[in-house]
């Protein structure tokens, strides 16, 4: 059948393919060039925003939209009542994972919640087993797991290797550490999605036309692939960490007053972290600001 | 650099241990440089590459496994997704779909799968791609088989 179709189109086909020289140029323009160019673009982007930026007052967010949409400015005013600061992350497709990494490690560093450290370590071991059961060879993911666990140990104070807050910021900007932790989260997310593929399948079919496994291979595991709700649900569930996302977009509500939509991702499992360190019970200690296509970290007042 | 070396060393040990698991792939690390590998892969059966043995060259970057290895065919091959002159391979996992979940060994498996299932819509070898896209499967197969005989099989006599 395919042959018939092609045969019918034969006449047209020759016309389409006649400028062979153009194809030759493409053939000479190898993938190496493309990838080199990509990394140049990324390096330039990097000069503007580090992987994890400095904590800035929320007023810098308003300044960004000074001459922008009035709805956004109204929403920023609302945010300003609840949140004091923002920490930006680089828009390289890893911003959700990078924001989550910094926010979580900073929380542990500031609260010294050892029970939470023990709890998440057990979940990390579960994630390791999940990947093993799915047939991932240990050598493909173990370095990333080890590096995350090392960061987790190092934010606990009172040891020679303990990190100060400045050192945590420094490490989060060091590509060799930061990217490895991002990759750890990508493995965890992929494992969770595949483990509960029946649950995630309808969400994934809504996003792409691929199977759960294909989705994980093409949209979760590769660095730089942006995160969607599916990724957030999976990571939050796998590690048992609630995440709040505030949405700064142009949507307005009919009721008149401007409010900022938010969504709390609450893990399905029962073993939630105890909320020491000031935050109210059951409210997430990680809050991210979402603007279409990008995540940054928010700090409550 | 240190991380990539450690990872490659693990892959090296795994390759030694699992040598018999993949009889179609023979992956060898350069004696003096763990960032340079070559592989011999068997052409998949029921394809025009059957009976041929194809050599691949791997150049592994220092950022491996966050970045993919560069792989090309050293053996001449007539295939829509392999550049006829340079041996460069057009395969998504060697570019934007790369992730550290792949290994050099599984990349070889993916390349064997690509040999069996060409993607004529993203050709690096336009002559080969055009034959398939115009429905001339026989033309493609006979060209591919000829080059397999000329380049990928031991010469007779």
Automatic annotation (TrEMBL), chain A:
Per the record, the similarity remark reads: Belongs to the peptidase C65 family.
* Keyword Hydrolase in record: yes
GO cellular component annotations of the record: nucleus
For this protein, the Enzyme Commission number is 3.4.19.12
The GO annotation for biological process reads: protein K48-linked deubiquitination; proteolysis
Q: According to its UniProt record, which residues of this chain constitute the active site?
A: 92, 95, 294
Spell out the reaction equation it catalyses: Thiol-dependent hydrolysis of ester, thioester, amide, peptide and isopeptide bonds formed by the C-terminal Gly of ubiquitin (a 76-residue protein attached to proteins as an intracellular targeting signal)
Swiss-Prot/TrEMBL keywords: Hydrolase, Protease, Thiol protease, Ubl conjugation pathway
User: Does the record bear Ion transport in its keywords?
Assistant: no
Q: What is this protein called?
A: Ubiquitin thioesterase
Organism of provenance: Senna tora
Q: Where is this site: Interacts with free ubiquitin?
A: 233, 247, 249, 290, 295
Task: Give the OTU domain ranges.
Answer: 84-301
User: What InterPro entries would the database entry show?
Assistant: OTU_dom (IPR003323), Otubain (IPR016615), Papain-like_cys_pep_sf (IPR038765), Peptidase_C65_otubain (IPR019400), Peptidase_C65_otubain_sub1 (IPR042468), Peptidase_C65_otubain_sub2 (IPR042467)
Membrane-spanning parts: none
**GO MF, any single term:** cysteine-type deubiquitinase activity
From TrEMBL, chain B:
Q: Which residues form the active site?
A: 90
Q: Which UniProt keywords apply?
A: ATP-binding, Nucleotide-binding, Peroxisome biogenesis, Transferase, Ubl conjugation pathway
A biological process (GO) of this protein is: peroxisome organization
* Pfam families in UniProt: UQ_con
What sort of enzyme, by top EC class, is this?
transferase
EC number(s) stated in the UniProt entry for this protein: 2.3.2.23
Q: Boundaries of each UBC core domain copy?
A: 3-153
Q: GO MF annotations for this entry? A: ATP binding; ubiquitin conjugating enzyme activity
Record-linked PANTHER family = UBIQUITIN-CONJUGATING ENZYME E2
Similarity comment? Belongs to the ubiquitin-conjugating enzyme family.
The protein in question is named E2 ubiquitin-conjugating enzyme
* Organism of derivation: Senna tora
């Amino acid at each position: 059948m395919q042959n018939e179709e092609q045969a019918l189109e034969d006449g047209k086909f020759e016309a389409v393919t006649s400028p062979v020289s153009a194809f030759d140029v493409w053939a000479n323009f190898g993938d190496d060039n493309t990838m080199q160019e990509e990394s140049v673009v990324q390096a330039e982007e990097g000069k503007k925003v580090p992987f994890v930026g400095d904590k800035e007052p929320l007023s810098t967010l308003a300044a960004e939209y000074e001459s922008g949409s009035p709805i956004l400015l109204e929403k920023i005013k609302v945010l300003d009542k609840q949140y004091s600061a923002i920490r930006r992350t680089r828009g390289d497709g890893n911003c959700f994972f990078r924001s989550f990494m910094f926010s979580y490690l900073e929380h542990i560093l500031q609260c010294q919640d050892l029970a939470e450290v023990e709890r998440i370590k057990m979940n990390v071991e579960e994630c390791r087993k999940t990947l093993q059961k799915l047939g991932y060879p240990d050598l493909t993911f173990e370095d990333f797991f080890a590096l995350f666990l090392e960061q987790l140990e190092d934010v606990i104070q009172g040891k020679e290797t303990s990190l100060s807050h400045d050192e945590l910021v420094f490490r989060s900007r060091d590509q060799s550490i930061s990217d490895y932790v991002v990759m750890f989260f990508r493995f965890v997310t992929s494992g969770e999605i595949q483990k509960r593929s029946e649950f995630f399948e309808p969400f994934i079919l809504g996003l792409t036309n691929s199977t759960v496994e294909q989705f994980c291979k093409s949209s979760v595991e590769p660095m730089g692939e942006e995160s969607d709700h599916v990724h957030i649900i999976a990571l939050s569930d796998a590690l048992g960490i609630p995440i709040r996302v505030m949405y700064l977009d142009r949507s307005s509500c009919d009721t008149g007053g401007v409010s900022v939509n938010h969504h709390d991702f609450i893990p399905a499992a029962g073993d939630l972290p105890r909320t020491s360190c000031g935050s109210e019970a059951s409210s997430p200690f990680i809050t991210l600001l979402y603007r279409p296509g990008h995540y940054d970290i928010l700090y409550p007042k | 650099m240190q991380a990539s070396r450690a990872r490659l060393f693990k892959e090296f040990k795994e390759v030694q241990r699992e040598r018999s698991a993949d009889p179609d792939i023979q992956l060898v690390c350069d004696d003096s440089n763990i960032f340079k590998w070559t592989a011999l892969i068997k052409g998949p059966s029921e394809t025009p590459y059957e009976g041929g043995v194809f050599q691949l060259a791997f150049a592994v970057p220092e950022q491996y496994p966050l970045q993919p290895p560069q792989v090309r065919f050293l053996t001449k091959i007539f295939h829509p997704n392999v550049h006829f002159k340079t041996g460069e391979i057009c395969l998504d996992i060697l570019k934007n779909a790369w992730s550290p979940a792949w290994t050099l060994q599984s990349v070889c498996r993916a390349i064997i799968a690509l040999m069996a299932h060409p993607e004529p819509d993203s050709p690096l070898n336009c002559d080969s791609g055009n034959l398939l896209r115009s429905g001339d499967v026989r033309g493609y197969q006979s060209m591919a088989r000829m080059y397999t005989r000329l380049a990928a099989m031991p010469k007779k006599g």
